[in-house]
Amino acid sequence: MVWEIGLPLRFAVNLPEHPTDAELVEQCKRGNFHAFERLYELHSARMKSLAFHLVGNRADAEDTVQETFLKVYRAMRGFAGGSTLSTWIYRILINCCYDNLRKQQRLAEKPVSREQSNDPKLPLKVALERALGKLNERQRLVFLMFEVEGLKHSEIAAILEAPEGTCRSWLFEAKRELKRLLRESST
Amino acid sequence: MKFECGDLDRALEAPELMPEAREHLKQCPACRSEYRLWSDISATGRQFHEEWESPTLWPRIRSILEAEPKLISTPSWRRQWKVWAIAAVVLVGIGSLFLSRFQQTVRTPASPDVARITGAPANRDFLTEQALRDVQRTEAAYRQSIEKLSSLAEPKLADNTSAQAANFKEKLLLIDSAISETRSNLDHNRFNVRLQTELADLYREKQQTLQELLTRDQKN
User: Fold this and answer.
1) Nearest C-alpha in A relative to B56
2) Chain segment B71-102, per-residue pLDDT in tens
């Protein structure tokens, strides 16, 4: 409530060294800007990477992460803690990514091109990247979250609001499809 | 159950079948190759994690947020600032009215009644019984109006740990303690004009402090 009596946000109370999610949320709700910055430090790297794979390039990924944090900040007061903080943030991020993709596709009237790896020493990586682009949205998202970003099945289930078993099954389908596409491309 | 090549996919989905699958893999090069590709997909997937520096990203976010602090900071009840402003103005008005009446009563020079009641010569530092009753009535009304003002300010100070809030709290605490002390002195010397004036001044000080807190709040 620092702003309520007109103090600049920098006067907000200090955070503990390793604040819990609940402490961060509480401090963010009180307008503690340092808490929000800590939230950014904790999550932005992985969010940028996930956004990069969903929107296709770094500039758009950064814009999406920026938009996500603005939405998180504006909606923080309404965050009731029904899900974990990171789950909630990733859900917003994914929605922002898809919104931006739709905007880009509307503007370009063609599928968004993706930055492709051009490392010739890694044929599997290149082939896998291409195969990944051919997966359906849900399979790609689950693969990216689990295999690329290292989120747990329980976290993915919470983000996608689906049962954990279903998410495991989506991941299996994604990998099976990737395996098929890789076999196909190698013949 | 005899594990066959067709069972490999099922084993990859159900870890409990993996011990049998591993036995099978030892003898089946085709399944071994499939399994290796399966593992490579995961291993290669991990390399897709992208990291890059974005030195302008946080400053960009911060500057946008700093330009719109009220979006997060304003709870719904505070968004109705007009209602609060009107309520505060009305209360301050009522308070000022009571204060002026209170002071007028307190500062009325002692009448010859004093001599009759106290048996002492008329003294401007002492009040008559009637004047005292007026003063006490006015004071009670004034105190009530300040309490209403306090109740408006209270939610703004509650749970606020900032330095400025602490200053406000400390000042209000000091005023309250001085009011309580003066009132206690007045209990022993009910007709003392100086103490009554002091008390009125303390109430005015409290009113101004609360008013300042509310005005500041509306500005933000």
Assistant:
1) A62
2) 444 555 555 666 777 888 888 888 888 887 77
**Which of B32, B35, B42, B49 would best serve as a mutation to test chain A binding (most A beta carbons within 10 A)?**
B49
**pLDDT by residue (tens digit) across B151-189?**
887 777 776 777 777 777 778 888 888 888 888 888 877
| Residue numbers of A between 78 and 117 with CB closer than 8 Å to B | none
Q: Distance between CA atoms of B9 and A35, rounded to whole angstroms?
A: 46
| Rounded distance between C-alpha atoms, residue A31 and residue A3, angstroms | 7
CA–CA min distance A123, chain B (Å)? 11
Q: Where are the alpha helices (DSSP H) in B56-162?
A: 57-67, 70-73, 76-79, 81-107, 113-118, 129-157
ipTM above 0.85, yes or no: no
The residue ranges of every structural domain in chain B are: 1-40, 124-220
The amino acid that residue A85 corresponds to is L
- Rounded to the nearest angstrom, the minimum Cα separation between A15 and chain B is 13
Q: Is A159 exposed, middle or buried (0-12, 13-18, 19+ CB in 10 A)?
A: buried
